[in-house]
Amino acid sequence: MSDVFRAGVEPGGLTTDYELKMLICYILHHIDRPMPISALIEVFVKEGIGNYFETASAASSLVKNGHIAVETSQDNQRCYVATPLGTSAAETFEKDLPLSVRDRALEAAQRYFVIQERRTQNKTDIKKVHDGYLLTLTIKDVGSDLLTLTILLPDLTSCEQIKTRFLSDPIVVYKGVVALLTGNYDSVGSLLDEP
Question: Are 113 and 107 in contact (CB under 8 A)?
Fold first, then answer.
């Protein structure tokens, strides 16, 4: 087993091609649903577990050897799925991977799906105006929208930061707005302590 090219890999990240392959199988087995190729690679890179090229190469090798397969999703995204061979490998060899890396990678993969679901349930819109950008955040509900909020921001960077925060937990935003407008902060107290 050769050492993985270390650029972009944080201390505690994976150091061999074998470990990358086992972690890919582990994630796909435990999320038990197709995961877009770009999202899986992004999890490894963002978490500092593996770099782009080595992760892509490990996944490609797993496809070639029948451990994972490529499917096209309903929205035309190419996705990886674990095959029975990949699931068996994940169950057999997952203990060879550090628990902290397994947990971090799986949480990041699950977080990806939570954010994707929130993006379909909630809406953001950025509009350029003469004095900046209008960012509109909308929380959809069964009947009327639960919240529609438009804010003027100076640049696209600010819009993207707020958009990301909003989509990561729209209910916190909703409760925070209601608490600020009503002056009743009791419902927000526990939210402010969360990471």
Answer: no
pTM of the model: 0.65
Instruction: Tokens 């978490």: give the residue.
Output: 47
DSSP state of 49: S
In single-letter form, the type of residue at position 56 comes to: A
Q: Which residues of 27-65 are buried (b: 16+ CB within 10 A; e: fewer)?
A: bbbbbeebbbbebbbbbbbebbbbbeebbbbbbeebeee
Report the C-alpha dihedral over residues 106, 111, 113, 119, rounded to 10 degrees. -170
- Give the tens place of pLDDT for each residue, 151-179: 999 999 999 999 988 988 888 888 888 88
Cα gap 12→5, rounded to integer Å? 14
